[in-house]
User: Fold G-protein coupled receptors family 1 profile domain-containing protein from Smittium simulii.
Amino acid sequence: MLQNREQALSLPSPTVINFLAVTNSLSIVCGIIVAAIVFYSKYRHMQNDVPLAFRVSLYIGLIDAIGSATRLFLNRVPSDYVMSPTSSKACLYIITFSTIASVALSNAVALSLHLNVLSKNLFKKRANWYYEYVAIALSLVLSTPVFFLYDFITFSTLLREFFMVAINNQSTILTMALSYYSILFIGILYCYAVFAHVCIFSFFPQFQKTNSLTQGSLNQSFVHATPHQKRKSINTIRWMLLYPLVPIISDTFFVITGFFPTLPGINNLANILSTSQGILNFIVFTLNPKFRDLYFYKVIPVSRQEASSSISTQINLLPNHKF
Assistant:
């Protein structure tokens, strides 16, 4: 949706526009379904508190639905429609916020994995309750350069792209790289790091050797856990790894197109993948063990204490690795 290199310009084919409309529509529907399930679960099964993963899925679903609705509107406006600079800035801010917020919220889960699984931070339970609020607040702030770093912003209904101008072309590219793509790059890079590290931790415990940085292997640290608890804990961690995987899939190509000249086909692929974030979030949410327990296996009211410690309790069974 953002254009800063003339060589990447090309008229989007009707097939691409229609496919973007389908993915945006599905993302909106998926976001609404996730929100409905979370609200129903809170008032029907969870007496007070909602687990971190439920809340993150809720916020990602709602924020992505707003961004997808904006993209859907922009892709459906008539070719002769002229959008004012103020409206263009407002639409671009919503899209920028939805993209950054989705990555930041995935980073909130990645940080929870980092503190709980890798470093066993003592303050993890208390910190878990404000991860997502900090992520949303930072996203609101980090999206504001749209309003004051550019002299002019407009949306081309012909090319279906936003165009922005700072002082000159080189200044515009540098401003976009520093104020937008670099933020996404840092967030996605952290997701890559946590994803790879926790994958090694959970899938290959034999590589965790006892040394000054690692207090014991995965198997050695489960001496007080039953086989069922061990298996459930590992499965929970592997499922939570899907959260940082979502921006890796949906936004990696988008960041690449922002930093490097790319072919129109790569640019179209980046736009399509970036609109699929709501769909991926819905898939990850439905794979939630607690979601399956509530709606597929047995419906048991969840108390405040159980809701607040469900995932943390399982993760606490893991070894006290310090990397």
Remarks:
- The CA atoms of residues 250 and 273 lie 5 Å apart.
- The longest helix spans residues 169-203.
